[in-house]
Amino acid sequence: MEQLTKISEIRKALEKVRRQGKTIGFVPTMGYLHEGHLSLVRESLKKADYTVVSIFVNPTQFGPEEDFNRYPRDLSRDAQILEKEGVDILFVPQTIEMYPEGYKTFVEVKDLQNLLCGKSRPGHFRGVCTVVLKLFNIIQPNMCFFGQKDAQQAVIMKKMVHDLNLDISVEVLPIIREHDGIAMSSRNSYLNPEQRKAALILYKSLKEAEEMIVEGERSAGNIIERMCKIINSEPKARIDYVEIVDLKNLNPVIAIKNEVLIALAVFIGSVRLIDNIIVNIKE
Amino acid sequence: MEQLTKISEIRKALEKVRRQGKTIGFVPTMGYLHEGHLSLVRESLKKADYTVVSIFVNPTQFGPEEDFNRYPRDLSRDAQILEKEGVDILFVPQTIEMYPEGYKTFVEVKDLQNLLCGKSRPGHFRGVCTVVLKLFNIIQPNMCFFGQKDAQQAVIMKKMVHDLNLDISVEVLPIIREHDGIAMSSRNSYLNPEQRKAALILYKSLKEAEEMIVEGERSAGNIIERMCKIINSEPKARIDYVEIVDLKNLNPVIAIKNEVLIALAVFIGSVRLIDNIIVNIKE
């Protein structure tokens, strides 16, 4: 595995790869890798001839009060893991090269960026779109891989790629969970053992929602009410949002039908966690 | 010359060209071609192995009160001209394919977009950036060509390409003028003979500014004052702006030094015309 930090270096390396007619798969990450990331990496290794993983904790997607500085980082461990998986290039760009002084260009996906997580994280998806577009332009992959854990991000990435006529296929892969059901996340490392236990409430409420639907409940309002009640029964939890939305446009639904996304964000102490499930009713 | 309207068609055609190792030059236009456009086309024909010209009157760069509907169009004449020049592909995308229902993604170059023309045309440069980025992604050119007539657009395009790490060289070519000095523009076709004569005042004021600088004047304020006086002496003219700015960041300068852009927008009747000169002082 080559580990590159300069844009000119990776451009050069990938030019060669493209000239050989190889397809390039790309997995953008913020590092501190877990099995969720690795499921994306393995899919890329399977589908593409050549796999690039980036690790970049992107400052433009963090709000001023958010956890940019304390976001967990462990590059040498990440590099070892990726090397072992068989990744071809690990790209670790420097902030000063990604956002040099006087940087001014930003990409937005209107409407979608203001819903769900966008409400409590203004500017977050603008930052995500901008950095991913930059990485796309540097790497020029044929396919890229995102996790369903960041459900809204996945929808926005697909929309951006489609709207901007990027010739890149976007694959979204299922959430990877710990044995007890908690969704894997680099931010889980913030949790102390008690908070870790409290964090189970997210998935528990999602499973309850799923069960209600299986049993015939079709009112999004009733389901959300029940979910909130469950989450609020956990003293360490504070709800940011609990929503049931259309999977395509992320607009709230009133009645459950077809495919819906049940998504939530909950603070456990000061740690904001997200989780979601997709429920598909065939009636 | 091939004339293509569908994105999938031009992608396919250009894939072949790229596989042959040919470089692609791209000239984005809104059509109704004049010698200004043709100077860009000829430069592309000279520098690139393969030249693509697009004609697309882009709705997202026009304000609601602007001239989108009446903007002059003559595709068959344009196609004849480009064929004769030796262009390889004329791309004429359809609005419905460029902006399908539910289109949501936009690109902005902050700060630069709010100066000069951006003040009286809010959203204009967002529309320009968005459509050009889409065309770049469809065509994937090695080089592209813009006219200095749209000075602010040229600065913004360079900035967007640089910020977004697009691997495209941006060339900006000089303004082409009629024999009497008026800058070539598709919008000149709106002018009746009397307005056409009145429109000479734009270039006249720019030449006067240049002369003042040659003669030693260094106060931007004094020069602008003199230019406004000249323009206001023409009863058909109404100033939108007259500014002297830094060529890189488009910020107003107080004293003339190094390279400055003297730019103006003036209404002749209801027709808004722009013009500019670059003055370079070596002291």
Describe this entry's structure for a reader.
The structure is a homodimer of 283-residue chains. By secondary structure, chain A is α/β, with parallel strands linked by helices. The first copy, chain A, has 2 domains: 2-173, Rossmann fold (3-Layer(aba) Sandwich), CATH 3.40.50; 187-281, Pantoate-beta-alanine ligase, C-terminal domain (Pantoate--beta-alanine Ligase, Chain: A,domain 2, 2-Layer Sandwich), CATH 3.30.1300.10. Chain A has 10 helices and 10 strands. Chain A has helices spanning 7-19, 35-47, 75-85, 95-98, 117-120, 124-139, 151-163, 193-198, 200-214, 220-232; strands at 2-4, 24-29, 50-55, 89-91, 105-109, 143-147, 169-173, 237-246, 259-268, 271-280. The radius of gyration of chain A is 19 Å and the shape is globular. Chain A starts with a strand and ends with a strand. The relative contact order of chain A is 0.13. The mean pLDDT of chain A is 97. The A-B interface holds A 7, 11, 102-112, 129, 133-134, 137-138, 140, 159-160, 163-167, 249 and B 7, 11, 102-112, 129, 133-134, 137-138, 140, 159-160, 163-167, 249. Strand 5 of chain A pairs antiparallel with strand 5 (105-109) of chain B, so a sheet runs across the interface.
